[in-house]
Specification:
single chain; 259 residues; alpha+beta; 5-stranded mixed beta sheet; 4-stranded antiparallel beta sheet
Length: 259
């Protein structure tokens, strides 16, 4: 489904399949510096951070690649950072040499826009990729997606890297994945009934998950069940908050104070 972001303050339309947390990450083919096709399957079994940007010839894109190159040096062998744009491979190679980009795998999507269309990053009117980040775990499940609302702004590095850690330490029970799916339905899909099903499954697997407790408490509040809501919110406050959480400590406390 098409969706909108802004580029220099002007609305632009993104086309392709909008990527969602919990989905299987599509396999795509891009072009390397030697003009050879490369399938994303070569990174199967590793956690992948897809760093997406319009062009190496802009300051913000340069900052994005330099930042992820620095972060990549701190990650283990089971994590790869893949940078993607529609720049010609020659331009990408020149940029990497000039900026010392040696820890990130840089590929071009200029031929078929295969990545861009499968992940919903193509700016229709410009044939460029929008800016954003996708984190895929070792089982090829999408764990985090950011379409930066204003293309000239940088992505949320901290959140992407935090979700990378989550993906790397993925628990096969899947409580975090269930919570992510639930939040997608609750916050983006406007389907609270479906979201509740996933929240309930998540809490059965991990009873201390902060976001799950917070959202389930909101259902209790809406239904007038204040005691149940209070119990969940107090339990959430005992947890350890991090940038991974949607619900901040202040949000949980405010919800509790409103009872």
């Amino acid at each position: 489904m098409d969706h909108k972001v802004t580029f220099g303050g002007k609305p632009v339309t993104l086309v392709g399949n909008r990527c969602k947390v919990g989905e299987t990450a599509p396999v795509f083919t891009v072009t390397d510096a030697g003009l050879q096709p490369v399938s994303s399957d070569v990174f199967h079994g590793k956690v992948r951070i897809y760093s997406v940007f319009p062009s190496v010839d802009t300051p913000v894109c340069s900052l994005q690649n330099i930042r992820f190159n620095r972060e990549a040096s701190k990650l283990g062998d089971d994590v790869v950072v893949v940078s993607l744009s529609v720049d010609l491979p020659f331009a990408q190679k020149r940029f990497c040499a000039a900026e010392g980009i040696d820890r990130v795998h840089v590929f071009s999507d200029y031929r078929e826009l295969d990545f861009g269309m499968k992940y919903g990053f193509v700016i229709d009117s410009l044939r460029l990729l929008a800016r954003g980040v996708v984190v895929v775990d070792r089982d090829d499940v999408v764990r985090y997606v950011e379409y930066v609302p204003e293309v000239t702004h940088e992505p949320d590095y901290e959140k992407a890297l935090a979700f990378n850690t989550e993906a790397y330490d993925y628990d096969d029970e899947g409580s975090i994945t269930l919570d992510n799916l639930a939040q997608t339905y609750y916050r983006l899909g406007n389907d609270k009934a479906k979201a509740r099903e996933f929240f309930q499954k998540a809490i059965e697997l991990k009873s201390t998950q902060i976001d799950t407790l917070y959202f389930l408490a909101q259902y209790d509040i809406e239904e007038g069940n204040k005691d149940a809501a209070r119990e969940k919110l107090e339990k959430a406050l005992k947890g350890r908050f991090s940038p991974l959480n949607y619900a901040t400590r202040e949000m949980v406390q405010a919800s509790l104070d409103s009872l």
